[in-house]
Amino acid sequence: xxxxxxxxxxxxxxxxxxxxxxxxxxxxxxxxxxxxxxxxxxxxxxxxxxxxxxxxxxxxxxxxxxxxxxxxxxxxxxxxxxxxxxxxxxxxxxx
Amino acid sequence: xxxxxxxxxxxxxxxxxxxxxxxxxxxxxxxxxxxxxxxxxxxxxxxxxxxxxxxxxxxxxxxxxxxxxxxxxxxxxxxxxxxxxxxxxxxxxxxxxxxxxxxxxxxxxxxxxxxxxxxxxxxxxxxxxxxxxxxxxxxxxxxxxxxxxxxxxxxxxxxxxxxxxxxxxxxxxxxxxxxxxxxxxxxxxxxxxxxxxxxxxxxxxxxxxxxxxxxxxxxxxxxxxxxxxxxxxxxxxxxxxxxxxxxxxxxxxxxxxxxxxxxxxxxxxxxxxxxxxxxxxxxxxxxxxxxxxxxxxxxxxxxxxxxxxxxxxxxxxxxxxxxxxxxxxxxxxxxxxxxxxxxxxxxxxxxxxxxxxxxxxxxxxxxxxxxxxxxxxxxxxxxxxxxxxxxxxxxxxxxxxxxxxxxxxxxxxxxxxxxxxxxxxxxxxxxxxxxxxxxxxxx
Lengths: 95, 443
Known about the structure:
Chain A has 95 residues and is of the alpha+beta class. Chain A is 17% helix and 29% strand.
């Protein structure tokens, strides 16, 4: 099963000009529990090649990950001013 | 009970008049709208331009303002003119002035300024009162001096003061989105945790509804220790999921949301579906800070940009693209003595994700040649040279000896004007609320 098929929301967005935050909101608690084993802090560190802040939100079946951008939003060299595409590498991940 | 109406997610995105009329019919105690953001990068703060131009601002403001003035409903616009510096407030007030004149309205306006004087910012830096924020770079004197404008994100302090005055409209400079909606119920003595939780969610308008839209309104009804969210537009609904998902939006921490005057904790927040279209929310916790802290933002001019856009379709050229671009870059750098930045964005290859790209299937590349230099004419010349090199690049195996690339535009070089970067995005751990000041204007 692909991650994109297990979620109601999978998105990334700026949180201030120096941070990207990714919200993964699962369809239900069973799917959330299944994916938790795979989507660890280490997994995100490797995928995004940097340190991350990492949260399991058990009550709302959500995993949240935040990290620093290489360039502040909209600065020279930035590709994605709103940070809206950083979730893409997660879509096709298989459980 | 207090009814707060958020006109839309952001002024200029187009509001929904039916929703507004519906809300007014139901009864509204307060109308708010957020007009600014830093989402679009440093350009607007640096250049002093409004993002929503005169027409967009007037379109969204005119009718609601007219009704609010007639019905004497407090109306607050936050981060007016987008970035909230004095120059943005001035342009925004020009729109208000024209609305007053053309509708024969008398409007008494309170303007709350939040632009900081550079000397004051330097003083704060010297005193060690400016902190870096979750790991972003330390601020330097040069960062402050080279900023075009520096603004501080206000909290509710001055807005509460203005709301106690007899004003038809309050136009605030840079202010946190939630503060726009929190100040009024705070004045009325409601539960602080519920106020801030609600303010945080409704500030984006119907973005927290289903279907989501930043161009439609949302009603928040505040009770003693809970609140209810409901979109006036009958084609939308608020659900437990849509409200919860929105509480996380644009925050790096899902449970802890910091505001200038305190911190909102959402670990024990409770969301209940009341009926088809409304959600009841309670259980947040608000911890007041001993003294307020403020986020400050500053943007500086870094040069002028010229770009050229071209399409590459030949598979042999695409296969060699890494080497071709590296070679063009090095040759362009040898051609010019003055400093400049040259970069390429390769849409179709890795244009969006850069080194996070994981798919290697390319049949076509849209190439953006991006040059930033100290003056526009130099950026233009450099871009032109890089463009010409790519146009005639004699890569290994080339069989078409005409031009290599497809230009969708003539001229190929597009001057983009000033380029700005965020020099300042830091925290001031000192109460600077006395620097925000209220100006009274009558139209």
